[in-house]
Amino acid sequence: MDSSSTNAPTERVLPRSHQLQQRAEQFFPGGVNSPVRAFGAVGGHPPFVERAQGAHVWDADGNQYVDYVGSWGPMILGHAAPQVVEAVQQAARRSASFGASTASEAELAALVQRAFPSMERMRFVSSGTEATMSALRLARAFTGRKFVIKFEGCYHGHADALLVKAGSGVATFGIPGSAGVLEETAQFTLALPFNDVAAVEAAFARHQGEIACVIVEPVVGNAGCIAPAEGYLQALRTLTAQAGAVLIFDEVMTGFRVALGGAQERYGIQPDLTCLGKILGGGLPCAAFGGRREIVEMLAPLGPVYQAGTLSGNPLAMAAGIATVGHLIEQRAQIYAQLEQTAAAIADGVAQAAAQAGVALTTNRVGSMFTWFLQPGPVVDYASAACSDTRAFAALHRAMLEQGVWLPPSQFEAAFVSTAHTALDVAATVAAARAAFAGMRAAG
Ligand SMILES: *Cc1c(COP(=O)(O)O)cnc(C)c1O
Description:
By secondary structure, this protein is α/β, with parallel strands linked by helices. The protein folds into two domains: 14-78 and 332-443, Alpha-Beta Complex (Aspartate Aminotransferase, domain 1); 82-330, Aspartate Aminotransferase, domain 2 (3-Layer(aba) Sandwich), CATH 3.40.640. The chain contains 15 helices and 14 strands. The protein has a seven-stranded mixed β-sheet with strand order 4-10-9-8-7-5-6, sandwiched between helices. The chain has a four-stranded mixed β-sheet with strand order 1-2-3-13. It has a three-stranded antiparallel β-sheet with strand order 11-12-14, covered by helices on one side. A hairpin with a 2-residue loop joins β11 (362-366) and β12 (369-373). It starts with 14 loop residues before the first helix and ends with a helix. Bound molecules: pyridoxal-5'-phosphate (PLP).
């Protein structure tokens, strides 16, 4: 593709995608069903996707891309992985949904528990938002307390109580929280800086006996990728235990990603409750929350906490989850070593290209999730992430897209590597970045 115009807002017209976008705008606000899919933050026109296979996506105009969005995390085995396609097809033939229990639910739960032994009991839901919202309700019921601590730049889905300084799309579009969320709801959510133990200590001191839980992305993905500082997660564990508060790890993104057993395995910390999603459903709508038995068994029908879902534990989602998680467990050693190696090769190659071009770039990477922050760094929390040059990121994004590399369309998102990314994809990505940086430098 033409890379000579990479420093100007893209002039490349994708006629078919453009047509589809206009049609979509007649039905959906902004033409999208999730705001992070829009290209407002990076400019240019979003390609419409026709199909994908492995690490590659094809748009409606016939262009091919190396994909680093991976459906925002789920596609760790690459797109249309044969065993996942086969499992879903077989399940669909037995009917898509019953509203009664099937064996596949316990089958997937057993796999989940092998990866996440802290999840003694769990419940399946259909989205990460439902998982975090329900975990919060459980924590409040269990403790009889009102306040919730979250961290600036962490996104936990779009439930009212959690849409406070929520990173991701909220940060991308410069919205402080969300209109429509009552002050009366938001006032019980304390948003603190990530990686700052003193701030958590101060909050517990100020609100003694009032804090129900601390919810955290143990590796932040939704302010861009930010690793926990040494000892930080342990400090959260200690402080919550001392205060009788519930520690919730929102591993919707990190679960099965930064290790088979998520961040809790990678950093050796056991939370009270865990939220999973994304990879869990292998691309189908599936999420879960679970943890200590005495907390989770407060759920109806055993206990007084109500939570339900018509399509929860859906057979197609269970089939895709079993195929995906089952494969990750079977090939665990090989898969996570390969992901680490591929992601490191991309990060190293692109960092080197940036250094050679004199472009200020900070690479934050944990396993196969990473973000390129357009700034000297370090990026350790939301405030430092927000110092990035988002215009330079937009230029990088456009230039990469024109050369057939599809990054998440925001500075405040993580990119994902799958097992389907090959050395050829790595080389193409590094070459695209080299050209993009040259163009950005020429543009000043
Ligand atoms: C994606 C995400 C969610 C929300 O999940 P949905 O399925 O989009 O509702 C919650 N928490 C984290 C950490 C996420 O990355």
